[in-house]
Amino acid sequence: IESLRHLTIEETYELSDAILKSDKQEIKKELGDIILHIVFYAKIASETNEFDIADVLHGICDKLIVRHPHIYSD
Predict the structure, then answer these.
(1) How far apart are alpha carbons 45 and 41 in whole angstroms?
(2) pLDDT (tens digit per residue) in 1-10
(3) Torsion, CA 32, CA 35, CA 37, CA 43, rounded to 10
(4) Which of 39, 36, 40 is nearest to 12 (CA)?
(5) Phi, psi of 34 (to 5 degrees)
(6) Residues 27, 33: Cα–Cα separation, whole Å
(7) 66: helix, strand or coil
(8) pTM, rounded to two decimals
(9) Model confidence pLDDT, tens digit, residues 16-66
(10) What single-letter DSSP state applies at residue 51?
């Protein structure tokens, strides 16, 4: 995972540049690249039984609920 770190940072900068240029097609491409990295990290972690993509997605859902209880309350 650590060996991918610099590549993920590079993709994030590329997304940032696309946003500053308001280049919607490039934003779409760079978002896809970042999602690819996320899936790749999760796949690597799943092979050592640390976590998988479902764990990552459940974490996002939990964070949304905590941050926006006015939307996700009972």
Answers:
(1) 6
(2) 999 999 999 9
(3) -130
(4) 36
(5) -70, -40
(6) 10
(7) helix
(8) 0.84
(9) 999 999 999 999 999 999 999 999 999 999 999 999 999 999 999 999 999
(10) -
